[in-house]
Structure formats: C-alpha cells, structure tokens
UniProtKB/TrEMBL annotation:
<dbReference type="GO" id="GO:0006012">
    <property type="term" value="P:galactose metabolic process"/>
</dbReference>
<dbReference type="Pfam" id="PF02744">
    <property type="entry name" value="GalP_UDP_tr_C"/>
</dbReference>
<keyword id="KW-0299">Galactose metabolism</keyword>
<feature type="domain" description="Galactose-1-phosphate uridyl transferase C-terminal">
    <location>
        <begin position="248"/>
        <end position="426"/>
    </location>
</feature>
<dbReference type="InterPro" id="IPR000766">
    <property type="entry name" value="GalP_uridyl_Trfase_II"/>
</dbReference>
<feature type="domain" description="Galactose-1-phosphate uridyl transferase N-terminal">
    <location>
        <begin position="64"/>
        <end position="231"/>
    </location>
</feature>
<keyword id="KW-0119">Carbohydrate metabolism</keyword>
<keyword id="KW-0963">Cytoplasm</keyword>
<comment type="pathway">
    <text>Carbohydrate metabolism; galactose metabolism.</text>
</comment>
<keyword id="KW-0548">Nucleotidyltransferase</keyword>
<dbReference type="GO" id="GO:0005737">
    <property type="term" value="C:cytoplasm"/>
</dbReference>
<dbReference type="InterPro" id="IPR005850">
    <property type="entry name" value="GalP_Utransf_C"/>
</dbReference>
<protein>
    <recommendedName>
        <fullName>Galactose-1-phosphate uridylyltransferase</fullName>
        <ecNumber>2.7.7.12</ecNumber>
    </recommendedName>
</protein>
<keyword id="KW-0808">Transferase</keyword>
<dbReference type="GO" id="GO:0008108">
    <property type="term" value="F:UDP-glucose:hexose-1-phosphate uridylyltransferase activity"/>
</dbReference>
<dbReference type="Pfam" id="PF01087">
    <property type="entry name" value="GalP_UDP_transf"/>
</dbReference>
<dbReference type="InterPro" id="IPR005849">
    <property type="entry name" value="GalP_Utransf_N"/>
</dbReference>
C-alpha cells in the first residue's frame, strides 16, 4: 500500500476528529515524512479512496516500515513505532486539559466521556487488542463473578527477549506511572508514550493526574496517580483522596490496593488508585446491616473476602469513623483464625479501600487483608492455596477482590487442550506436558460431569469460575464459617463518643 496514501489518510483521520487543525496540517505532515525517512510527499491520486480504519492505516504503515528496514518485525518495535506515529496527531496536553475542564463545568460525565473517547481514538487504549480478551460469568453463591482471560497484552517474541538481555538499565522515568512518561519515546523494556495524556486534578489538597489504562480490564478503566513518585500508603489521607475523587466524578468508583506486599497491587512504589465506570460484582453483594452510629451505617457483605461497607451523607463523619476502623483493624489479632497484626517480620493487617458516591450518599468498602506467611504458605496464608495456582497464582489485588478475575493468557491455549482431554481426544506428549498442572482439576471435572461437545465449554468455564471463587475465599480473613467472629469485630467498633458526633 502506498505510504503517501497512508499518511494522507492519517492526517484526514486527525482533522476529522479535531486532533489537528488545518493550520497544523503541513507541520504534522513533515513530521510524519521524517518518521518514515522520506524527503518528499506525493499527493495521492484523486481516484484513490482514503482509508478510514485506524487499524488498517497503522498496519499499512508498520508493514512499510518493516519492508524499508526502518524497524524490525517484532512486537516491541512495532508497538514503539505505531505509538510514535500516533504522537504526531495526538493533541497537546494543554488543548486537552482546556477542553476537558470546559466540559466539566457543564457535566463531569461529559468531560470523562470526551477524554475516554480521545484516548481510544488516539490508540492509547488499544481497543482492537482489548476485544480479544475472553469474558464470561460464573454464578457463585455470592452472586455472578466476572471472569476474564487477558489476551490484550501481546507476548514478547524470541528476538525481543534476546534484545532485552543487552538493554541498558535506565531510571527515567522512575516507573510506568510517573508524569514524566508523557511523550516518552520508550525503549525495548519500557513502552512508548507519545500518545499518553492525563488530566491534572486536586485531591485532598494534593496534585494528582487522571489517565486511562491502555489495556482496560473493564469499561473506562481509569488510573489516578500522584504527582510525586512515592510509595503506596493507604491511610486516612488516602481515604480523603478517594472521597474527593468521587465528589469530583460521581459516575466513577475508585479504589486503592492495600499498601503491603502480597495483598497489594503490582506497583507499590508509586501512590495511585484505580477506578472507572464499571459496576463490579462486589458492589451488588448482599448487605447485612450491623449498626448505625453518628449518621454512618455499618454493613458486612455476603462476599468471600471480608468487607465492611460504610455509608453516610456526611463525608467528615465517614472519614472520622473510617480512621477508627483502620486503627482497630491494624491492631487486631485472633490466633484462633491465624490473624496476627504483626510479628518479627513486621505489620500484616491492611485494608483495600473502594469509594463510590450514589446521589448524596458516600459509600466505602473496607476489605480486610492480611499478608502473613508460613512455611507451608510462603506466598501468604491468606493467598490462594497452591491447589489453585494452575488458574491463578498472582497477587489478588483491588480488581479481583471486587469480583473480576484477571487471568493469564496462557489459559486460552491450555484450556483448548483440556477440552480435548475431556472429550477423550488423543493428546500428544507435548500437549500432555503443557496441561500437567491442570490434570487433577480436569480429572475431577471428567468424573463429575457427563461431557459432550455441546456442554464442554460451559463445564470448563464453570470450573474456572469455581476455582476463582475459592481463590477469593482463601483471601478472606474471616472465613464464611467464622461469620460470628466477623460480626463481633464489627460490633466492637461501636463507640460511645460517636453518639455525640465527636
């Protein structure tokens, strides 16, 4: 496909969406010529129709760059290059911020919709990859759980892996959440971010930025990160930040991973939150009202992870009582349940926090976590047991706690082989080896069900969902059979001084 037609098509794509102005046309055109090592531009023939699909434009440009030896044909180099291309037509941060806050004055939801669509149209959110993810639901005793197998992150090819061995280390940017990522060209071991944009916001009198995840796990998957590169700290100041966010953007939930290893997220070195437009399963969990004090209602949820839900119209009262819950949980031990607040290895109790605003009512979900380890459970006593590692071994963070499983891409191929095994099809030695970790589980499915071509996919999906349900139960500090102890802990939070609003 002719490169001039591709360049013209991309420019028209940018003009149509008002990413670039007519006055910028030649400026951007010459930037693209430089990108493709071209010295001149030939206007396409009038009879040649422009290409409207961004994926088709970028695929054509990547093929040209590979054929002309501008880049190598590898996943990493293609991602670095197509991001560089999109950087030429992505609007400047100042223009986006101005437009966002103009819309915000009318309606915060309009502003978010504008910004999200822009991040999709600039290919920062790679929708074509996200569509590859596998999604299904599992009807657990706690309600429907959402299961996803993440296929949107491309796997590195052997050439990329070989090059990474010789890649020099760099400390710039300090991490993938730092504000310095904006317009960064990337390197083999760090993604390009020429099309990254974020919105400055103020939470609890501190500077933060709102951006979207390039690999959205759910609708409008947002990330809110601190202006400063500092470790995760989930304290009452973080709760104030979360409540300020839902005050600014009530159409989104927002949450924070616990600030300790094992029970925290994958990035603990930069203070940040995750949120978005989705209604994840935990939000709809059955509530059991335990008590009310000083205009704050206390519920526990029928949920595998131990969750206290607080509701109030009064933000300051909610903050005051949340501080007390934090203090009490951080010092709570119950040896009968193997809950120890601290030992010679340090503190173990932590809280995963989720905030919402529904009308005038603020809602906080406080998910009680503990990261103690034992000789038999070196990855965590309240972490998935080894029996479930074949499905999920990684940390159970904020998103999973809320009932959305993010499962590794390897499962797609492995489950196709499990399917053959369940249908009594002949497997090669290589295939048998590849599903060795699943064999006990698959054999149980085989004994439990009469399996046919018509029901085998449902049986596998339900089997995965059942494992995820048990994974969440393993993370619960108060097990379902220990509900009495959980209720006793919540009722112990009743305090005389709250009656006077102090």
């Amino acid at each position: 496909m002719q490169i001039n037609l591709l360049i013209k098509s991309l420019l028209e794509y940018g003009l149509k969406r008002k990413f670039i102005h007519e006055d910028d046309y030649l400026y951007v055109l010459n930037g693209l010529l430089s990108c493709f090592q071209l010295k001149e531009f030939e206007e396409p023939e009038l009879f040649e129709p422009l290409i409207e699909s961004l994926d088709e434009i970028l695929d054509g440009m990547l093929n040209y760059a590979i054929n002309e030896k501008i880049i190598e044909n590898s996943v990493i180099e293609k991602d670095l290059f197509d991001t560089k291309i999109m950087g030429y037509i992505t609007p400047l941060p100042s223009m986006i911020n101005q437009k966002f806050y103009q819309l915000y004055k009318k309606d915060s939801t309009l502003a978010l919709q504008y910004f999200y669509q822009l991040c999709c149209d600039t290919n920062y959110i790679r929708l074509s990859r996200i569509k590859k993810d596998i999604h299904f639901q599992y009807p657990s005793s706690y309600g429907n759980l959402d299961i996803s197998i993440n296929l949107s992150k491309p796997e590195k090819d052997p050439n990329d892996i070989k090059k990474l061995l010789t890649q020099k280390n760099s400390s710039y940017p300090k991490c993938m959440l730092c504000k310095e990522n904006i317009n960064y060209e990337g390197r083999l071991n760090f993604p390009a971010r020429q099309n990254l944009r974020y919105i400055p916001i103020t939470l609890n009198q501190e500077s933060f930025y709102l951006q979207y995840s390039p690999y959205s796990y759910y609708p409008e998957h947002a990330i809110v990160f601190s202006n400063e590169h500092k470790p995760m700290l989930v304290d009452i100041e973080a709760v104030k930040e979360l409540l300020d966010f839902v005050t600014l953007f009530p159409s989104y939930f927002i949450g924070s991973n616990a600030g300790l290893p094992i029970v925290g997220g994958s990035i603990l070195n930069h203070h940040h939150f995750q949120g978005g437009k989705a209604v994840l399963p935990m939000e709809n969990a059955k509530e059991i009202l335990m008590m009310e004090q000083d205009d704050v209602q206390y519920f526990i949820l029928h949920w595998p992870v131990s969750v206290i839900r607080l509701k109030s119209k009064h933000k300051n009262k909610l903050i005051h009582q949340t501080q007390y819950v934090f203090n009490q949980w951080q010092s709570y031990s119950n040896p009968d349940l193997f809950i120890f607040a601290e030992d010679e290895n340090g503190k173990h109790n932590a809280i995963t926090v989720i905030a919402r605003k529904k009308g005038e009512v603020y809602e906080l979900d406080l998910c009680l976590r503990n990261n103690i380890v034992t000789k038999d459970r070196p990855l965590g006593y309240f972490h998935p047991r080894p029996d479930y590692f074949h499905i999920k071994k990684e940390n159970i963070g904020l998103i999973e706690v809320m009932g959305l499983a993010i499962l590794p891409s390897r499962l797609q191929k492995e489950m196709n082989i499990v399917k053959k095994y369940l249908l009594n099809e002949l497997l090669t030695d290589e295939e048998i080896d590849s599903i060795n970790q699943h064999m006990d589980w698959a054999s149980d499915l085989k004994m439990k069900y009469t399996i046919t071509n018509e029901n085998v996919d449902d049986i596998i999906q339900n089997g995965i969902g059942e494992v995820f349900s048990h994974v969440l139960e393993d993370c619960g500090v108060f097990k379902q059979e220990n509900e009495a102890e959980f209720k006793a802990f919540v009722l112990s939070l009743k305090k005389e001084e709250f009656k006077d609003g102090r």
